[in-house]
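Cross-check.
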Amino acid sequence: MNGVAAQNPPQDEQGNWGPCMLALANDKQRHFVSALFEAPRKKGRLIWAARAAGYGSTNSSNDSIAAIASRLHADQRIQAAIAEESHRQLRGLAPGAIAALERLIDDPAAKDHARAIATVLDRSDPLMTTHTVKVERDDRPTPQAIDKVLARIEALAARAGLALPAPKLIEGECVELGQGRAST
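Predicted model, tokenized:
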């Protein structure tokens, strides 16, 4: 198939699939996700991955394969599997990245030598700052302030020709409790 990956996912990947890859409907979808990571770095990666996964036929046009690939790529389950595979592959790059960083730090003449040192220090022993904010306010309105606001509301309502209804009084009996017994 013109340099396209094999029709079946590599054997070693089958045992290492995470829950999102296993949740896909079939092996074709799983291989589509895997093929996205093997696709050449150029335009048409989705088409290449769809063909590698076995979608379409040898006579299928790029437009029809592009439609299939686009539909697959937009599927939320495929997106979750892509994110899962991205995370797995990114974690796998860490040893090589650390080795490259060590070589950069070991070369004082390297252009980014100081930046590499700063990056390692920032991540291994980050600068920590502590801020203490103490708020001391007492904004509770006083009874006099409440009375003043209510009087102003009544004055504005009267000036506008609105009659405010009198507040409803709650009728009730006062009961004094003493030593666990009610007395009336």
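The first helix runs from residue 11 to 14. The radius of gyration is 36 Å. Passed to J.P. for a second look.
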